[in-house]
């Protein structure tokens, strides 16, 4: 059976790139019975059935995101503007933690450095291993670095509305006409301008256009248990074994090596504050409540 990957799903149809062909497919009924929904990024096998193509099987996934629906993501580009809208490090850290928890590499892209300096935002991530790219679609700054991350990987762009995701995609992929959407001055944020996930081939890799990948509910749709949250902040990793107590929550325990690293300037205070805020959100949630 031919193998391929889903580029887009809309109206119950899935568009599968199999070699040089783009096949319009329906999903077999067995997936509904198993409560499995094919999503963009899924690697699949297809077969002909009564003169039409159907998805016969979904190959094992590296990961899957609920909102937006996408599978096998390798890199999550988190786009933040220096202003209009003003960045929230908590939102950025939630997105990077979700990516890390799902074994995708988070990469921070800073836009609008012509309107306000990028140094404050860059300094917040200087002690962390999170790659940071300052990008300018007008001058081309940072675009080659972004292309390098895309090569050989499936990548998605996310961030608050109005930060310039569509403008950035237009600069990277000028052959694709994409509505950019105006900033709402009254609300201080942009309008959603795309409606379904679609994957494009680019720079030896794949780019997913992912509408709605901005506000994620970490306590539900992207729930990270409090015991796992420390591992979603990779800069904590070297210090966790040095904590005095096994199972240290890194909040108030004596002999916590993570807190000591924050005080020593080895871990960013804003990253640590985000960890505390995220821990507080999930500390009372039971696993069965999100299943």
Automatic annotation (TrEMBL):
UniProt KW keywords: Cytoplasm, GTP-binding, Hydrolase, Metal-binding, Nucleotide-binding, Ribosome biogenesis, RNA-binding, rRNA-binding, Zinc
A molecular function (GO) term: metal ion binding
Cofactors named for this entry: Zn(2+)
CDD domains according to UniProt: S1_YloQ_GTPase, YjeQ_EngC
Residues that hold GTP according to the record: 111-114, 159-167
Domain CP-type G: 62-216
Known EC number: 3.6.1.-
Transmembrane segments: none
Gene Ontology biological process terms in this record: ribosomal small subunit biogenesis
Location of this chain's protein in the cell: Cytoplasm
Superkingdom of the organism of origin: Bacteria
One cellular component term from this protein's GO annotations in UniProt: cytoplasm
Domain EngC GTPase intervals: 71-214
Residues the entry annotates as binding Zn(2+): 243, 248, 250, 256
NCBIfam families: ribosome small subunit-dependent GTPase A
Role played: One of several proteins that assist in the late maturation steps of the functional core of the 30S ribosomal subunit. Helps release RbfA from mature subunits. May play a role in the assembly of ribosomal proteins into the subunit. Circularly permuted GTPase that catalyzes slow GTP hydrolysis, GTPase activity is stimulated by the 30S ribosomal subunit.
Family as reported in the entry's similarity comment: Belongs to the TRAFAC class YlqF/YawG GTPase family. RsgA subfamily.
Protein name: Small ribosomal subunit biogenesis GTPase RsgA
Taxonomic source organism: Candidatus Allofournierella pullicola
């Amino acid at each position: 059976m031919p193998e391929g990957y889903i580029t887009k799903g809309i109206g119950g149809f899935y568009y599968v790139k199999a070699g040089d062909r783009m096949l319009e497919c329906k999903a077999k009924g067995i997936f509904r019975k198993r409560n499995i929904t094919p999503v963009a990024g899924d690697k699949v096998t297809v077969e002909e059935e009564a003169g039409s193509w159907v998805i016969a099987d979904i190959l094992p996934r590296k990961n899957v995101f609920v909102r937006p629906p996408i599978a096998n993501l390798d890199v999550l580009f988190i786009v933040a503007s220096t202003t209009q809208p003003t960045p929230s490090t908590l939102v950025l850290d939630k997105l990077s933690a979700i990516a890390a928890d799902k074994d995708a590499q988070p990469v921070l892209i800073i836009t609008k450095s012509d309107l306000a300096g990028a140094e404050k935002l860059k300094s917040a991530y200087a002690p962390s291993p999170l790659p940071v790219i300052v990008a300018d679609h007008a001058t081309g700054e940072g675009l080659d670095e972004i292309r390098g991350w895309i090569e050989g990987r499936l990548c998605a762009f996310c961030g608050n509305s109005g930060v310039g995701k569509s403008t950035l995609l237009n600069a990277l992929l000028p052959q694709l006409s994409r509505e950019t959407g105006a900033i709402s001055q009254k609300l201080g944020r942009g309008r959603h301008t795309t409606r379904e996930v679609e994957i494009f081939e680019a720079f030896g890799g794949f780019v997913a256009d992912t509408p709605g990948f901005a506000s994620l509910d970490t306590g539900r749709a992207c729930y990270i248990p409090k015991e796992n949250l420390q591992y979603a902040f990779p800069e904590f990793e070297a210090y966790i074994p040095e904590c005095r107590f096994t199972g240290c929550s890194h909040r108030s325990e004596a002999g916590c090596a993570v807190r000591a690293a924050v005080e020593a300037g080895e871990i960013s205070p804003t990253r640590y504050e985000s960890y505390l805020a995220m821990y507080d959100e999930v500390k009372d949630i039971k696993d069965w409540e999100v299943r």
